[in-house]
Every structure is written in structure tokens, then in C-alpha cells.
């Protein structure tokens, strides 16, 4: 578990952009499923009125973050045009991953105690 990284990415979807957002989320998910066999989890959760979405990402280690950005970078750019983002990162990551996440305003959290069964 010590190497695992998790994100909680919160999206506030701009007015009138729900369908476009869902389409881009599906595009990103397909890219991840096809090209990132090491991704442990990648789930999008929408609130009841479809104005906000939370994406949970689970990585086996920090080096996979850069692989992910290389894979979904273009789609991420499109998502950022139609939704505001905030990111909480859980786990220890290196300087390269921080350099990719810092421009997105990521907030970092270190593990204090806990376990994972996967």
C-alpha cells in the first residue's frame, strides 16, 4: 500500500456542458482502460443534479501518474475547458509527478495509518 496513490478529482461542470462532459469522461475512461493496464481503479461519480462529478483514480505507484498524463492529456485539456477542477492526492509522489499536478492546483495528503486489501 505504501506505493499506491489515489486521487479524488472534483469537477464543477459549466452550465450547459453536462453532455459534453459525459462524452469526454467516457473518452478518457476508454483511453485508460485500453492503454493503462496498471491502473487499479478509475471511476466517475455524478451528483444528483449533474452539476458536479468526482473522479476517483487509483495507481499502483507514482510513476504511473506520468503515464496517465501522457495518455489522457488531450482529453484532460478539453475537460478543463468545460469544468473547473480541484484535486486531492493521497500518497507520496515524486518531483516529476508533482510538476505535472501542481499546475492543476493539487493538494497533497500523506498517509498516517491504514491498509488496503488490493
- Overall geometry comes to globular
Number of separate strands: 5
Report how far apart the termini are: 8 Å
- The helix count comes to 3
Helix content: 25-40%
Q: Segments where pLDDT lies below 50 for 5+ residues?
A: none
The largest β sheet comes out as: 5 strands, mixed
Mean pLDDT: 94
The portion of residues forming beta strands comes to 25-35%
Order of helices and strands: EHEEHEHE
Query: What structural category arises from helix and sheet content?
Result: alpha+beta
Q: Over the alpha carbons, how many angstroms does the gyration radius reach? A: 14 Å
| Biggest sheet: strand arrangement | 2-3-1-4-5
Question: What would you say this structure looks like, in words?
Answer:
By secondary structure, the chain is α+β, with helices and mostly antiparallel strands. It contains 3 helices and 5 strands. The chain has helices at 18-35, 63-82, 95-101; strands at residues 5-13, 41-46, 52-59, 83-90, 107-109. Helix 3 (95-101) links the parallel strand 4 (83-90) and strand 5 (107-109). Helix 1 (18-35) runs antiparallel to helix 2 (63-82). The termini are close together. The model has no long low-confidence stretch (mean pLDDT 94).
